[in-house]
Amino acid sequence: MRSTSIPRWPIFAVVALLLLGAAAILAVTQMAARSQDRLAVTQSQATFSAVLMARQHEVASLARDYSFWSDAVENLVTQPSTEWADANIGEYLSTSFHIAAAFVVDGANQPTIAYVEGQAQPPQSVASVLPALQPLFDAAHAAVRSQWSQDTGPDPAFGFLIWEKGPAIAAVGAIARQDGEPGPEWDHLLVLVRPLDAGLLNDIASAYGFDELHWQTDGAGPADTAIALHEPGGAPIGAVVWEPERPGRALMRQMLPAIVGAFLVMLALSGGIIVFLERNRAVMLRHRALIEEQNLALQQQKERAEQLSRAKSDFLSIISHELRTPLNAIIGFADLIRSEVRGPVGVPAYRDYATDIRNSGQQLLALISDILDLSRIEAGKLSLHEERVNLRKMAESCLNLLRPQFDQKRLTATIGSLEGLGCVLADERLVRQMLLNLLSNAIKFTPERGRIAVEGGRAADGGIEIRVSDTGIGMTEAELKLALEPFVQVETNLARRAEGSGLGLSITKRFIELHGGRMTLESRKDVGTKVTLWFPPEREREADRMVG
Questions:
Q1: Per-residue pLDDT for 492 more than 70?
Q2: CA neighbours within 13 Å on the CB side: how many for 308?
């Protein structure tokens, strides 16, 4: 009897085709996932390389700013000034830019001035890193002896080295005058060292999404997720390693159950999945291009803003010089006429005119100085010339200086309790200007027969504070905010009669902040105003250390 059973091979063939189709789908999906992973890894490596290069350029730019500077030539090479170095390349660079070491080497590449963690150290304390820096020294010497622009100065050299058992970015700039005049100082170099420590790596990781970003000495790790670091001479010093995002793996974990459980559905959707993956890749590429365009636009805007800021500062400096010279002459000649040094004027009214000319010239000169100070602060070019300042004597001196103005308005000026008001490390000119600004404001906005008092002492938080209070017109909360804006005066009848630029409180606030302190205002309408200047306790300790 002939068998009528259905052959099994078609079933086996269909099963085999399904298995092969599923395997093909799985293979294609896996390939796409790996491609996405490779793209993510490549982007991660390119991003980190760009970020690392940007950090090197930041340190190099800082080295250029402080080496291509006529003041640096005078105070670091020609006539070395410890006070200038302390204020400009010592603690300031350490606290503001995290510079671990800043030192100067001479033409023989031997250190002459050294600061470590913002503190002055013996020059030989940095001798251990000099051999590793030799290629950078040679490059910096070559740059200063080649042609370079007087606008930007010689190009600094930069690279990596080991500092305090960890990686660091080093930048070397040739010390040169801004006018381009050659001199023996061209043999001197300024070296800045910025550690590539855990804090900086954590900041980079947080900003750009690098997981487990760290440095290791042996350089071991996946080749596609490690950036090897070398000294300027080529010697390896380890590698920066991280775990990049791998979106393909996550995709496979999500899709594998569906592939195993539904071969037929996967066959129908495999093409769509591949298209989906390609679209994801295209979106990532478009996003990357957009980010690069935005970064380029932001960089151009930043450079334009920096150019405008430099142009404004240069313009104000030139205008200030051009105005100050004739103003000083006007004030001087008016004073000669008023004092009748060369003989009687003849007409008494002319003496009064000369007095008015002198007073007006002094007011205009003060306004120009205030505007120039404000411009320097905004451009970050106002540096402190710190010395030991006795606040008690300073307060008494300022009161005596303004005594004629107190008497003219019949104001009562008193010095209250000054217990605990001692000496601080500060810029004497700026401290005097702050007190004169506050006292002048109090005089302007206090009616006749009012009272003005100066008090001071130790603050509750350990700092030192000095207070100027008056029984003047006072201000509301809204007027307090306006009073701190440059060129703004609160609108009152007394304010309209008062002379001034509206810069006093704004400049005073910025001066005290340059000292690490703060200014607080307390005021009540028609009752009076109290302004407090607070100096941090470390400034008192530094002043005491100078005496010791």
A1: no
A2: 6
Q: Which of 414, 417, 475, 418 is nearest to 441 (CA)?
A: 475
What is the distance of C-alpha 217 from the center of its chain?
31
DSSP string, 266-287: HHHHHHHHHHHHHHHHHHHHHH
pLDDT per residue as tens digits for the range 15-67: 677 677 777 777 777 787 788 778 878 888 888 889 999 999 999 999 999 98
- Would you state the structure tokens that stand for residue 349, as one six-digit string? 């009214």
107 Cβ contact partners less than 8 Å away, ≥ 6 residues apart: 184, 187, 188
Q: What share of the chain is helix, strand, coil (3-state, %, to 5)?
A: 60, 20, 25
State the chain's mean pLDDT as an integer.
81
H or E element in which residue 7 lies: none
- Report CA-CA distances (Å) from 359 to 265, 366, 499, 511: 93, 11, 12, 26
- Cα–Cα distance measured from residue 170 to residue 149, given in angstroms and rounded to the nearest whole number: 23
Retrieve residue 166's tokens: 């960890």
Q: Shortest CA distance to 53 belongs to which of 154, 204, 165, 191?
A: 204
* Residue appearing with tokens 């930048």: 171
Contact call for residues 462 and 424 (beta carbons, < 8 A):
no
- What pLDDT score was predicted for residue 277? 47
DSSP string over 289-326: HHHHHHHHHHHHHHHHHHHHHHHHHHHHHHHHHHHHHH
Give φ, ψ of 224 to 5 degrees: -85, -5
Contact (Cβ atoms closer than 8 angstroms) between residue 101 and residue 193: yes
- Alpha-carbon distance of 83 to 92, in angstroms, equals 12
CB 514 within 8 A of CB 530: no
pTM: 0.45
Half-sphere exposure (Cβ direction) of 368: Cα atoms closer than 13 Å: 20
CB burial of residue 213 (10 Å; 0-12, 13-18, 19+): buried
Short-list 200, 216, 235, 398, CA closest to 227: 216
Q: Which spans in 209-262 are helix H? A: 247-261
- Would you tell me how many other CB atoms lie within 10 Å of the CB of residue 477? 8
Sign of CA dihedral 396, 398, 401, 407: negative
Q: Which of 464, 415, 417, 418 lies closest to 439 in space, CA to CA?
A: 415
Phi/psi for 501 (5° steps) reads: -95, -10
**Structure tokens given for 193:** 């060292």
- Per DSSP, the residues of 54-78 read HHHHHHHHHHHHHHB-HHHIIIIII
DSSP alpha helices (H): ranges in 146-262?
A: 198-208, 247-261
How far apart CA 360 and CA 327 sit, in angstroms, is: 10
Residue position matching structure tokens 């004073």 = 335
